[in-house]
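fyi for ur records
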Amino acid sequence: MDGRKLMTYKLPKREMKFRAWNLETKTMHYASKEPHTDDEGYLWKTVLLLDYDGWSIWRVPENVWYRGVKADERELLVNYENGILMQYTGLKDRKGNDIYEGDILGEDDKVFAVVVWIAEQTRFGLMFPPFDSVDKSRMALMDWFDHWQYTDWQVIGNIFENSDLLNNNDG
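which gave:
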């Protein structure tokens, strides 16, 4: 080479997790590798599928792969037509809860910020109160807040199931 040093950047490893809000049924669905048992004792898992048409989250029997599941053995929970997909940030709050896009961070009923995706910078960030408009001057990049694991901030809800927290904020 000509004496210049090649700079490399190693991306931090983090688990890829997703959840989706169903706009029609008003329910949150988490895609998970871990099976869960329903009320009747059957083992299920919820899987995220990405394809040319978009994304979808399905409930399938735990012991089979999606392509091998008969149509009557699987249940579509949410997809790109009726839901909003949110990604795990790779960070945890002070209680060890995963922090996702759309989560409300605060203490008790006091809201400090909402986790957002900043598309222009392809990274997660925070939006600070008031939450009545999308004002980019009230956003901060989330990587500035990697020390959250050691602070008093915690997930107190999300913008879909707990939107009342945003309206009642004194913040």
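Helices lie at 164-167. thats all i got for now
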